[in-house]
Amino acid sequence: MDSFLPYIACMTLALTVYAALRPAPPTVQVGFIAVGVAACGWLIGIVIGSLTQFGDVSHGIFFIIFSLFAVAAAIRMVTHDRPIYSALHFVLVVISSAGLLLMLEAEFMAFALIIVYAGAILITYMFVLMLANQAENPEDPLSQSTYDSIPREPAVAVAVGFLLLCLISGTVIGGTSELDTTENVAQHWSVLEKLPKQFETNVENIAPDFAWPPVTQDGNSIRHDANGPYIVSNDGVVLYLDASVLPTNTQLVGWSLVNDFPVTIELAGVILLMAMFGAAVLARRAIELTERDKRKAILGFDTEETGDDA
Amino acid sequence: MMTSFAPSALAGYLIVSGLLLTIGMIGFLVRRNLIVMFLCTELMFQGAAIAFVAVGRYLFDYSGQVMVIFILTIAAAEAALALALVVLLHRQKDTLDADAYGELHE
C-alpha cells in the first residue's frame, strides 16, 4: 500500500490542477490551488520521510515553505487568465527557487537567478505583454480575450504531465540512495592542489607553524582517512584540514567554469551573439524608400532641390 | 566544508524540480497565449536548474552550478528570439492566440 501513496498524491494534484484550469471565479480557483498545494506537501513529505533528513529541522521547514511557495506560484501562473499576473507569479517562483538554491549553498547562483531572471528576462516579457495586450476593462470579465481564459485540451495535458510526474517520483524515491559519493569527496578536496598559492595562504591562516610545503604522495599532498582530509609536513607534523581551507563557493564555481568547460563558454558567447543578431533582424521594420530618397542617400544631397535652384 | 547530505533530502529537491517541470509542461500544452507559452518554458528551465544544483551539491561537484549559468544563457537567448518572433506575428494578425497562426503564409 505504501508504494502507492506517491501515485495517489500525484493523482490528487493532477485533479486539482485540472479543476483549477477550468474557467471559474478566482476564489474557487484559489481553493483548488490550496488543495493542490496540500497534495504537493503530502508528496514531498512522502519523499523526504522526516524533516531531520536535512540535518537541521529549521532547514527542513525552510525547504517545505520555499518549495510549497514555488509550486503554488507555478500552478497559479499556469492557471491565471491574465498574462501580466502569470508573469508576476513567475517572479514568485524564481524567488522561491532562489531560496532553495541558497539552502543548497549555491549563493552565487541564487542571486544570479534573481538578477537575471526576475530582473532582466521577466522585464522583457512584461514589456512585450504590455505592448501586445489591448487595454481591458477589469470590471467586465467579458472584455478578457477568450484565448486567455479557455484552455486547450486540459484533460489530456494534465494526464500526460502527471504520468511524467509519477515516473519521476517513482524513480527518485529510493533511487537517490544508490548514488555513491565517497570518490567525489576526495575530488572535492583535490581542487586545492591546483591552487597552490591559495592553499598555502589558507593553511597559514589556520596553522601558522606548519612547515610548508607538505609531503606529496603519488603527486597528491592531501590524503584522506576516517577523520577526514589531512596533510603531512616534512618534519612529520600531521594537520587535519577543515572547511576554512577550501575556497568559497563562488571561487569553486568559477574554477569549474574555466577549468572544465572552456569551450562551452565560447559557445555560450556565440549563442548570445546570434540571439542578438536574430532579434535585431526579426524585429526590424522594412522601410519603403522612394526613388528620390534612394538617390539622396547615395549622393548625400537632394538632387531635385538643387535642380529647382538652378 | 559542505556537510554531507541525506539521500532523501536530495529526493525532496528532485521532486520539487520535477513538479515545476511538470507544471511548466502542462502550461505549455494548455495555454493559448503565445507569450504565456514561452513563460512556461522558463518555468521548465527553473525546474532543471534546481535539479542540477541539488545533484551537484550531493556529489560535491560544481559542474551543476556551472550548468545553471548556461541555462541562464540559453533562457536569455530564447527569450530575446521568441519575443522578437511574437512581436513580428502580433504585427501581422493583431492577436496572441497560438491557434490563429495555423497558417503562416501570406
Please provide a brief summary of the model.
The complex is a heterodimer of chains A (310) and B (106). Chain A is built from 13 helices and 3 strands, in the order H-H-H-H-H-H-H-H-H-E-E-E-H-H-H-H.
Describe this structure in words.
The complex is a heterodimer of chains A (310) and B (106). Chain A has 13 helices and 3 strands; from the N terminus they run αααααααααβββαααα. Chain A has helices spanning 5-21, 26-48, 57-79, 83-103, 107-132, 146-149, 154-175, 182-190, 196-206, 249-260, 262-283, 291-299, 303-309; strands at residues 223-225, 228-232, 238-240. A 3-stranded antiparallel sheet of chain A has the order 1-2-3, with no helix packed on it. Chain A is flat, with a radius of gyration of 29 Å. Chain B is mostly helical. Chain B has a single domain (9-94), classed as Helix Hairpins (Orthogonal Bundle). Helix content of chain B is 75%, strand content 0%. Chain B has 3 helices and no strands. Chain B has helices spanning 7-30, 34-58, 63-93. Chain B is elongated, with a radius of gyration of 18 Å. The termini of chain B are far apart. The chains are: A mainly alpha (310), B mainly alpha (106). Chains A and B meet through helix 2, helix 3, helix 4, helix 5 and helix 7 of A and helix 1, helix 2 and helix 3 of B.
